[in-house]
Amino acid sequence: MTKISLGTHPFLLGFDQLERLAERAARGTEGYPPYNIEQHDPDGFRITLAVAGFCPDDLSVTIEDRQLVIRGRQAESTQDRVFLHRGIAARAFQRSFVLAEGIKVEAAGLENGLLHIDLRRQAPQSIVQTIPISRK
């Protein structure tokens, strides 16, 4: 049995990028840091990541090719500390979310060890275009 992909179906022109986005979203499903995704209203979303121990300077939120990328790296402590038990993760992380067309990041804020990223879906503009037909 042959698999029909979006990129090869004759009625779905230009959707080959959608397949690549789905593959990219499936990669990197590591569980750290844990996160929630909430819907605030029909067009509003909030991603919340648990980033205890990170300060705003340790975090970066960027959009790279329709992908929201959150990175965290804590600065190395210069103090000589001896841990009897070390259960608090201090590792670097990168968490990515593929954004649909028209999704915009409105704000990002850090509160009580939680990084909140607010997103909003922009209503697409309805464009009607008439294509002239020339004689050849």
Would you give an account of this structure?
The chain is mainly beta. It is built from one helix and seven strands; from the N terminus they run αβββββββ. The strands form two sheets. Strands 1-2-7-6 form a four-stranded antiparallel β-sheet, with no helix packed on it. A three-stranded antiparallel β-sheet has the order 3-4-5. A hairpin with a 2-residue loop joins strand 6 and strand 7.
Q: Oligomeric status of the shown chains?
A: single chain
C-alpha Rg (nearest Å): 21 Å
Strand-pairing-aware structural class: mainly beta
Provide the β-strand percentage band: 35-45%
Uncertain segments = none
Mean pLDDT: 84
What spatial order of strands do you see in the largest sheet? 1-2-7-6
Give a brief rundown of this model:
This protein has 136 residues and is mainly β. The chain has one helix at 16-26; strands at 35-41, 44-50, 59-63, 67-72, 93-98, 103-111, 114-121. A hairpin with a 2-residue loop joins strand 6 (103-111) and strand 7 (114-121).
Which keywords apply here?
3-stranded antiparallel β-sheet; 4-stranded antiparallel β-sheet; mainly beta
List the helices and strands and how they pair.
Blueprint: H1 16-26, E1 35-41, E2 44-50, E3 59-63, E4 67-72, E5 93-98, E6 103-111, E7 114-121
Antiparallel strand pairs: 1-2, 2-7, 3-4, 4-5, 6-7
